[in-house]
Amino acid sequence: MRIPILRLGNILLTSIQVDLTDEDVMLFQNDVVNEVSRTEAMGLAIDITALEIVDSFMARVINDTANMARLLGAEVVVCGIQPTVAMTLVEMGRGLLGAQSTFNLEQGLIVLRQRIVQRADLWAFDDDERSRDRPFNF
Question: Where are the domains of the chain?
Fold first, then answer.
């Protein structure tokens, strides 16, 4: 089963609505990473609000997917972790280290937009600093 990946400007949104087999989870990871690379997305929101159970494999794959997306240059937020899922992840010693989490998708999109703007501001500042060292601006 393929999980849809939607593009909202420079942010990708994917929402896992059903329990996935291990094969589906790996297909999901591959699709997300390829789409982040193909679109040069600056943000990725992974919505897991519908999931009532996340096993250790699924948690690891979500974490790894977030890390891969970050290596490709995207900010990542995991949205909608249910309280029972959070408790299970902590009990298993499996945090989502590769991504920030938010209560819901709306908050996740706000966080992503803020991070993208901050990153753009840092790039602009860095360019200004470098241009002072050059005799000519090209």
Answer: 5-133
Tokens representing residue 114 in the block: 């803020």
- Which pair of structure tokens corresponds to residue 29? 């990871």
Would you say the pTM of this structure is higher than 0.70?
yes
Select from 55, 65, 48, 111 the least CA-distant residue to 88.
Answer: 55
Torsion angles phi and psi, residue 13, rounded to 5: -125, 130
Fold of the domain spanning 5-133: Transcription Regulator spoIIAA (3.30.750)
- 55 burial type by CB count under 10 A (0-12 exposed, 13-18 middle, 19+ buried): middle
CA–CA separation, 35 and 57 (whole Å)? 22
pLDDT value for 120:
84
Angle between helices 22-39 and 56-71 (to 10 degrees): 10
Convert the pLDDT of each residue in 84-108 to its tens digit: 888 888 888 777 666 889 999 999 9
d(CA 122, CA 114) in angstroms, rounded, equals 12
How far, in Å, CA of 5 to CA of 32, rounded?
7
Asked if 101 and 78 count as a contact pair (C-beta separation under 8 A), the reply is yes
